[in-house]
């Protein structure tokens, strides 16, 4: 059975049990679906057969997210290949993303390339450390945070975005941002995003190159992690599998690996 949802609310209601079974692996589904009052800015789909299901959602410019049975990927590929809604990137487990893109390419041709291999890390028990230098960001910090975020995006090879768009995001997420100053300038930053009833992520962790090696990232991450846990939520974050330095940092704070996730780009045939 193939279902194309009319609203994100319909999608969440119909798949609540499946999403609740693995909240970290499906965390992007609620976050995206809540932005979709109709399908003018994306799509939400489900393929099911017997007890197995495969979910797909794409919101705005973000990748299509997949979760569920890889055995149903050929059916989803056929639906999307035959005039279905477009996508450029796919986010999900290695098994599911590979199965889907392999089936899609049999029909439409083309190829795919791995953009980012990530791991989800979670913190059930914080190994505390002092955080005396951490403070909350204010409106007066927006311009400097924007400049630092643009540098972070460049250093992490993210898709280019205009300063205006980045500034808008910084302003919208300012309440969840913390920072450390050195010499009157922002030296390190981090923020909380994707807040759910039982989950909240830590993201945008960045230390200016001039201030690295001073334990500043440890402070901002520890501070946010402690705050999230005090609210009764599970802190989590995404890490690059190829970056042992940051992964060791998070492990030393108390984060453990939960599940890998791949972001893969579909390349249309020439």
Keywords for this structure?
single chain; 270 residues; alpha+beta; twelve-stranded mixed β-sheet; 9 helices; 12 strands
Rough outline: globular
Largest sheet: 12 strands, mixed
The Rg value, from CA coordinates, equals: 20 Å
Order of helices and strands: EHHHEEEHEHEEHHEEEHEHE
Topology:
Blueprint: E1 2-4, H1 8-14, H2 16-21, H3 28-33, E2 42-49, E3 52-59, E4 64-68, H4 73-81, E5 89-92, H5 94-108, E6 111-123, E7 135-136, H6 142-155, H7 163-172, E8 177-182, E9 185-193, E10 199-207, H8 216-230, E11 234-240, H9 244-253, E12 255-267
Parallel strand pairs: 4-5, 10-11
Antiparallel strand pairs: 1-2, 2-3, 3-4, 5-12, 6-11, 6-12, 7-8, 8-9, 9-10
Helix pairs in contact: 4-5, 6-7
